[in-house]
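[Discussion] Sanity-checking designs against the backbone

I'm trying to build intuition for which residues belong where. Below is a C-alpha cell string of 432 positions. I'd appreciate it if someone posts a full sequence so I can compare it with mine line by line.
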C-alpha cells in the first residue's frame, strides 16, 4: 500500500519517522525531516510499519545526491542523502531526545554542538569486506547477508581503495572464494603501510598457499592469514603492524598495536575526541589515580598518564593489554597497571576491596556497561568520563551513575562516522 506523508524527524538508526492517519508509526530510510514523500509499505512490525521511498514530492533544502553508486544497496551508509551540516544536526537532535526521554537533567547548553569530523569522506583506516561463494567481494546489503560487490568505498582512505581495486581487477575474489570468507584492509596512520588480513572459511579444506601470499604481497605491504580467533593470544611475540602519533598538551607520543586490537578507524577525529576527554580540571591532584575501563591498547590510558595519572587499565583482549603495557613503557610511564580480565568482575572486586579512584574513564562496546554502571559511584571518583558509540545504552548507564550521586556536567556528540547514523558521545559526570 502506498501513502503520501510528511517526515517528522530522523530517529536512531537513520530512518525517517512519519504517522499514518490512524496513528500508526511508519519508518522510512533515505528521507529527511520536513520532506513530503510517497512511500510503499514493506513490513509490519509490533507497534510500527516499515516502508520504502517511492518518490519525493517536496525535498528538504539539505537533500543532496548521494555520491556513492552503491548507496541504499550497501548497508554501510544511511545519511549520504543529507548535506554534512544536516547530518550533524540530525545526530545532535537524536542524542538530545534520547537523553530527555531518559529524564536525565542536563545543563541548559547541553548536549553541546556536535564535533564535526575533519573529513566527511575518506576517513576510515580499516574496512572489512565479505567474500561470498560466488566470488563477490564487498559489503553486506542492509538487513541481508547478500554481498554488494564494490571496488572502492568512499569512506575508506585512498591507499585502502587502491588495494581493493587491485584485488578486484586482478581476479582475486574468484581465486580466493573457496578458502576465504572475509578480508580486512588496514591503513597504518603513522607509516602509511597497508595490511591485508585474510580470514579463512571455517570448513575450508585448504588455506591460502605460500605462492598466493607472495602474489598478494604486490598489492599490500603485509599479508596476514588469521587462523585463530582474535584477542585470544597474549601476543608477547607479536610485532607492531600499526601505529599512530599523537599530541596531548605539549607532549608528543606514539601508540603501537596489531591487527587484532580495536582502534578508532577515524584517526583524525580520534585525536580531537582525546582532547575533549582529556580536558581535566586544572585543580586536580597530581598525581591522581585513574581507572580506564575497556582500555584497549591504551588510547586513553597513555594520555591520562602523561597528564599525571597513575592508571589502572582493564580490558578482556589480552593482545590489547600486551600493547597497552608496551605503549606505557614507550611513553616512559612507570606507574601504570594493565589487567586482562572481565571488566564487570574486576569492578566488583574493586568495590569489595573498597578501592577508590580520582577519575574513571570508560569506553565500552555498543552494549555499554549495563547494571555494572551502578558500581562506578561506589569507587568515589570526582569525575567520570564516559565514551559511548550508542546513545541508548549510554543514557541507560548514565541514569545508574546519576542515581549514585553524580550529575551530568557536559555531553558532546562526536561524529566519528560521517555518512552513517552512528553517534559517538563524550559525557562528563561530576560527583555532587
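Best answer:
Here's mine. Compare freely.
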Amino acid at each position: 500500500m502506498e501513502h503520501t506523508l510528511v517526515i517528522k524527524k530522523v530517529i536512531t538508526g537513520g530512518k525517517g519517522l512519519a504517522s499514518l492517519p490512524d496513528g500508526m508509526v511508519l519508518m522510512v530510510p533515505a528521507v529527511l525531516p520536513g520532506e513530503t514523500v510517497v512511500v510503499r509499505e514493506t513490513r509490519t512490525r509490533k507497534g510500527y510499519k516499515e516502508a520504502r521511498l517511492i518518490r519525493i514530492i517536496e525535498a528538504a533544502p539539505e537533500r543532496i545526491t548521494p555520491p556513492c553508486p552503491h548507496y541504499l544497496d550497501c548497508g554501510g551508509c544511511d545519511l549520504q542523502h543529507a548535506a554534512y551540516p544536516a547530518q550533524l544536526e540530525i545526530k545532535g537532535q537524536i542524542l538530545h531526545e534520547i537523553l530527555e526521554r531518559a529524564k536525565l537533567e542536563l545543563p541548559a547548553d547541553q548536549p553541546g554542538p556536535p564535533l564535526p569530523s575533519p573529513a566527511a569522506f575518506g576517513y576510515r583506516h580499516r574496512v572489512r569486506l565479505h567474500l561470498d561463494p560466488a566470488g563477490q567481494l564487498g559489503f553486506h546489503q542492509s538487513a541481508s547477508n547478500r554481498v554488494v560487490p564494490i571496488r572502492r568505498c568512499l569512506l575508506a582512505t585512498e591507499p585502502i581503495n587502491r588495494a581493493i581495486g587491485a584485488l578486484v581487477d586482478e581476479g582475486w575474489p574468484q581465486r580466493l572464494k573457496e578458502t576465504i570468507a572475509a578480508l580486512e584492509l588496514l591503513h597504518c596512520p603513522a607509516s602509511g603501510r597497508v595490511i591485508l588480513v585474510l580470514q579463512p572459511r571455517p570448513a575450508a579444506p585448504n588455506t591460502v598457499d605460500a605462492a598466493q601470499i607472495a602474489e598478494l604481497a604486490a598489492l599490500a605491504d603485509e599479508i596476514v592469514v588469521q587462523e585463530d580467533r582474535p584477542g585470544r593470544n597474549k601476543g608477547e611475540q607479536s610485532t607492531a603492524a600499526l601505529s599512530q602519533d599523537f599530541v596531548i598538551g605539549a607532549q608528543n607520543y606514539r601508540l603501537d598495536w596489531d591487527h587484532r586490537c580495536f582502534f578508532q578507524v577515524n584517526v583524525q577525529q580520534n585525536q580531537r575526541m582525546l582532547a575533549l576527554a582529556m580536558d581535566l580540571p586544572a585543580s586536580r591532584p597530581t598525581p591522581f589515580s585513574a581507572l580506564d575501563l575497556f582500555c584497549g591498547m591504551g588510547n586513553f590510558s597513555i594520555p591520562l598518564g602523561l597528564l599525571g595519572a597513575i592508571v589502572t587499565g582493564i580490558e578482556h583482549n589480552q593482545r590489547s593489554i600486551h600493547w597497552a603495557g608496551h605503549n606505557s613503557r614507550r611513553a616512559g610511564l612507570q606507574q601504570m597497571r594493565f589487567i586482562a580480565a572481565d571488566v564487570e568482575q574486576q569492578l566488583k572486586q574493586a568495590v569489595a576491596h573498597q578501592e577508590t579512584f580520582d577519575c574513571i574513564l570508560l569506553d565500552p562496546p555498543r552494549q555499554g556497561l549495563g547494571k555494572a554502571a551502578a558500581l562506578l559511584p561506589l569507587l568515589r571518583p570526582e569525575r567520570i568520563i564516559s565514551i559511548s558509540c550508542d546513545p541508548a545504552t549510554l543514557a541507560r548507564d548514565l541514569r545508574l551513575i546519576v542515581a549514585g550521586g553524580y550529575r551530568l556536567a557536559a555531553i558532546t556528540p562526536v561524529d566519528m562516522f560521517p555518512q552513517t547514523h552512528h553517534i559517538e558521545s563524550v559525557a562528563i559526570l561530576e560527583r555532587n
